[in-house]
Amino acid sequence: MTMSTSSTTATIIRPKSWADALSALYDDSWNAGLQRFRSPFAFRGLSRLDHSLSSSLVRLADGQGNARRLEMALLRNFRKYAHTEGMLADSIWDWLALAQHRGLPTRLLDWTYSPLVALHFACETPADFDVDGAVWCVNFVEANKRLPSRLKRIMTKEGSETLTVDMLSAFGSLDDFDRLSRRPFLVFMEPPAIDRRILNQFALFSLMSSPVAEMDDWMRGHPTLCRRVIIPASLKWEIRDKLDQANINERILFPDLDGLSRWLTRYYMPASAVAREDERHASHPDFNEGDRDRRLRRPGRSSARHASRSRTSRR
After folding, report:
1. Distances (CA, A) of 286 to 50, 64, 278
2. Residues 29-51: pLDDT tens digits?
3. For residues 87 and 81, is the Cβ–Cβ distance under 8 A?
């Protein structure tokens, strides 16, 4: 296992084996205060190393400077039309979590408390098995120490190391939340148990205090709180097979018939089919490689191409 560090970038770890990958992901899990192994990290797996940590909202705005107005319009109309489907939420935070979960572009990103779930998402796409992936790890416990004092008081009162939608309900709007600090800050928020996907994926969301803020920028400003575990292409098949044997797969993480179909399609895909999948993807330039978040929420994609490539509920 190789490791590189600098004072301005996150630690980069390149494991050379399955055991190295597990060691890197579970590193620093010991909590001396509790005398238990309780990791302070949140994890996010990416099937390609070149995927950024931009939110789906930022990507939709596409640098046009209208992300705030776009966010307001998306959420306003989502709330209006979701009511016709019998969907209700108690606060703007509930609506934001529900919108993210259902595939609407938001400022949220999907993370998990489970390093193995993150590893699944780094190795879920056979068409990407010829390129390196990554698992980002962020120390949310230390990140919380840099939050505005009002948020820290809320967490201290609740005895929690992450915020929930109930705790954030103290802020009636996203504008109220954003005004807590002029400098963008990062929050990790536990979503409500909307369905079994949230529960099975051990999910949480990251939330920037501005619709235009980039998490990549936040990480560059806090390199000691982050590390990136590279998942070499040469290890992906082994990791994928061992995760399947450990029952970490689409059937469990997406517990419905769509997840079952995706798992079966991938599980029985012969290795020789991957090259053909690569050729088919190359012929579809309109396919957005960076927007895995929305792909994961689009059920019913029955073709081998979509089944093999399909944040929210991992977005």
Report:
1. 18, 20, 15
2. 999 999 999 999 999 999 999 99
3. no
